[in-house]
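Appendix B. Extra example for self-study. Work through it before the problem class; the solution is given directly after the inputs so you can check yourself.
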Amino acid sequence: MQINEHKPLIVAFCCNWCSYAGADLAGNNRLNYPADVKIIRVPCSCRVNPMFVLRAFQRGADGVIICGCHPGDCHYTSGNYYTRRRMAALFSMLDFLGIEKERTRVEWVSAAEGAKFAATMNDFVEKVTALGENKRLEDLRCKK
Amino acid sequence: MQKITQNQLIDKAVSLLADGTVSAVLGWSKGEFGYDVTPKMFKTEKELRQDFVWNDFCGANFSKYLVSKTDRFDGKILVFLKPCDTYSFNQLLTEHRFDREKVYAVGIPCDGMVDVSKLKAVTGEGISEIKETSENILVSTIYEDKAIAVSFKDVLLERCINCKSKKHVAYDELMGDEGEIIDSARFDEVAKIEAMTPDERFAFWQNELSRCIRCNACRDACPACTCEKCVFDNPASGVENKAPANSFEEKMFHIIRAYHVAGRCTDCGECSRVCPQNIPLHLLNRKFIKDINEFYGEYQAGAEVGSRAPLVDYTTEDLEPGEVFDRRDIDA
Amino acid sequence: MRKCSLDKIYSVFEEIAKTAKLYVPLDEKDGNAVYKQWEDGLEWSDALNTVRSPKDFFFPQMENLMEFKTEGKNIEVIDTRCETEDFVIFGVRACDVKSFEILDRVFLNEPVDSYYASRREKGVIVSTACSKPAETCFCKTFGISPEEPRGDVSTWKTESEIFFKANTEKGEALLRKIEAFTEECDETSVDEQKEKISRVMDRLPLKELSTDSFGGGKTDEFFNHPAWDELSEACLGCGTCTFVCPTCQCYDIKDFNTGKGIIRFRCWDSCMYSDFTKMAHGNNRLTQKERFRQRFMHKLVYYPENNDGLFSCVGCGRCLAKCPVSMNIVKVMKKIGGEQSE
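Solution. Structure tokens for the complete assembly:
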């Protein structure tokens, strides 16, 4: 039987200090989340430039999630507060352009929250799978 | 028609040149058809008397020119600023983009500027002469024996219809009366698009942005876009591209362009004024302004020098990015 | 010469569209006219001209030249060019028709640009005489007659009729195709129409503009002209003038890494851009003044020098209408050409 279901590609930007360690913990605890999530480690969630998000979509991502330390816990004191404002503005703009809002997300995951990391990824992948392939921010040249 | 006359401005410029306050004047110089004015640095009285114009077509925002002009010019420059230009002026000062000491700013009142394409839609092509009366613009064309009277209000630039302020927020000297901040309807169009379904919004922007020819005029005219080297001009950036290769690149360019000035954009409307394809680019900028006002409290870039732009600021109580959508859904 | 009544024009379009793609200027909602593929129900625009010139049909803003795929140590070069279909561009103005001659000299001289050549071969140009030139028009300056446009077929539009005249074999073939809708006629009405256009041309504000001061061999005279500083000071460095220009022909060739291979494409470039003709050592025009000068020297001096005195401007007036700061070739010619140009 041929399976037509589209397997989404998810790019997760994870901050080095909390969320990446959270992902590590999820692994250590053998918690399952789809292998379609590709993690990119960044020093801090505020390292993520809006262009990173757009280029992830260009290069074939169907969803982009940014994970950082909980507000107040940033290794650099305030990086994630900036992330919060920047991504709020960016996501709202993407929504304004008619791009499905479920394709982008920011989540705060601490180094101790391996379970939250796995649950978040499972939920995000499920939502993006339901949306199907990213058509509105795709670059056809990269899909060939 | 403008309240202040061309001759008043010329006399002011001449006297400031004569008493040595300034050594050059940044003003508009006359063109071939009455509406095609070009920014110019005037250095002598003769030049001013001959070429200086002030009319309903002086839309260009001079604030950005100050960045390069003060850099390359030793003396002090006189600049005439319309109310909306003064916001850009302050914003550039906030960002330390030019030397305030080298500028003598004269605030001038503005009653709005005319959109030439709207004017031509009424009069047709072939404009040979333009005269201004208090309510009307009298346009002579080579096709009509009599001048065509066009109501000034009907042909205003979009940004002037939704003018946000007639108040000057920066000047050394003010000519005419000080105006007021206006309760404009400038976010109505944004709200209208927000109220559409995502599919409709997507179709709307797809149609608008697909016309982009990537001439970069929106960026180059923008007083907030003053990077020495734009990421889109830098071959090493990986995103430099001279043509709108496909719909993704069109969107990326316009999202990033608007995003980069978010919180710093004073809503001067130059981007839409200069777009050769009539793309309503100001709507992207206004969306950011509207969001910032709603999420983080009212903020007007350039209203005062030294204020902190919302996207380089934070509070511990800010809303979460995910709540951006919830808020609207609740409102709706 | 053949004619048909104007209300039959859409039947003519329909007939042409049966065997070739037909592009016609159409009105956009924003008031601009654009060339688009004609379909039943769409209306031929009355606008004087389109914002973007029809050079796109032969020299598109962007086109893929080839692709590369690597596998191990092998590299495969793929020719991605697709066979161009026959197409007809209808309603091209005299100035734009002339622009094709200027582009031809660049792309069809040895070495021939095969991408351009194949499109040129497949395209049929149907010109239409201007009826209402704008104040920004100055085609006469470059010896172009808007009353007698060239192209494969010339047409004249009056209040109620449209007249066709074939100038080339391709044009004759096209007229044969629509023979059933047209009838043979004499040239009286067309002559009247030409007369009318000539009278309008004499009233245009730029009618006196002359190229006498310019041409090949004038590099030394103009290169260090003091007026370049003043002329270029307002220039924002955007590419509007170059991208709406029917004769600007500079392009850049770039590679795009798709992650799975490389696409080599070319796209219009603008001499107004800071990275124009950037080389390994850097850029040879560092200031906006130098870049600005390049554009006008190319059009008025360098190009004629290499092309038997033909100027690389057709006076369509697009840059006059669209420059954000209203600085344009007319102002440049008047300023540096001195009294001879005014």
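Self-check: Residues 282-296 of chain B form the longest helix (15 residues). If your reasoning did not lead you there, revisit section 3.
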